[in-house]
């Protein structure tokens, strides 16, 4: 019996993530072309992202059956075992015999024929063992030593590195940390927005033809939630009538609140989703400069803007960590900095395994430099929004306070409530996103979005 296409795609994605430091979402997007059936695309996505989300828990289960865990040092063997155990624990609709047989065939396909017997034996043991509990996480929790420290226990049960769990326990407390860990292991909501209002009916029909159902946004009035089907394969998305973007990310563009005719700088613009919202707000008479460090990403943005008929954007290759070359000032600036991405672990689960604690210091320094270089180019009475998709204070409020402290009283953090209230759904509690410390925040388990931070900064007086 041949291996299903879904399993071979999932295996290849996981192997590229492990060996080439690739991002699963990017690889899946490339692999799932029109030749892949919808059901195969769905299973491949669930397998690849599910294994990445639950990697530590899966390894705990696998290692229980090994006398020497080093026996699976080969990455191909470990990936095969994770795929098999994931199907046995999490996918009731997949027969155990299929999960075992196809995993054995996968390891052979990877030219690890000598490991086929080991894979077969381990998966057969896992298939026979009962895992009591309401969920695999609860079942594994019952197997953990009672004296295991809380961060290790939660890290295994909910499949996160111990150092991240320790941080969040200090920052959020146990209850909110548990809810965050659980949210990071759920399939995230797919959201988007309509780029071309004249294409509303065409967009609806196009999405529905792929099996997708359109629901109102959870956070924003103009956002859509896309449920089921394969929206990425629709003409609406491929032709840029509709853009797929998390609602919290859309909200950041809303905080910039560009007015018609504004000059706007998007300093770290790729892949361009926020830029298109800024360009739409600035309208034809406004001018948006979309900058990014990497030439290939700038080219991809330019193609995206052209496809979406966004005309008022100029793209430039620019290193924002160096003094900016602009002689003019901008009415609005968005500094959406590269960050750890800890607010997006449900969408990008591999980040939790790539990130290291020491990375936060390096990220902080680069983020502070980007903000410090951008502020002098803000026009008098203009607005700059600094944002991340991180939950870590070192990347968020610490950056803002450190940088603004070096500018005296020229800049201030403004209250985000009036800007965000105009785009929020009426059912959303304004105070839940406009926090008491004056910053905008979303928290995945509470808002059903990615975790974003933003500071709205205004220039107090003209440049001397």
Task: Explain this structure.
The chain has 464 residues and is an alpha/beta fold. The chain contains 21 helices and 12 strands. It has helices spanning 5-20, 24-31, 38-53, 55-64, 75-90, 96-109, 116-128, 136-141, 150-157, 162-184, 200-209, 235-238, 247-256, 273-282, 295-307, 351-354, 359-374, 397-405, 417-421, 430-433, 444-447, and strands at residues 191-194, 213-216, 223-227, 242-244, 263-266, 287-292, 313-317, 330-336, 378-388, 411-414, 440-441, 453-459. Strand 5, helix 14 (273-282) and strand 6 (287-292) form a beta-alpha-beta unit. The mean pLDDT is 94.
What's the quick description here?
The chain is 47% helix and 13% strand. It is α/β, with parallel strands linked by helices and 464 residues long.
Considering the chains and any ligands shown, give keywords for the structure.
single chain; 464 residues; alpha/beta; eight-stranded mixed β-sheet; four-stranded antiparallel β-sheet; 12 strands; globular
Parts with pLDDT < 50 across at least 5 consecutive residues: none
Rg of Cα set: 24 Å
Name the helicity range: 40-55%
Please give the number of β-strands.
Answer: 12
Q: What separation lies between the terminal Cα atoms?
A: 76 Å
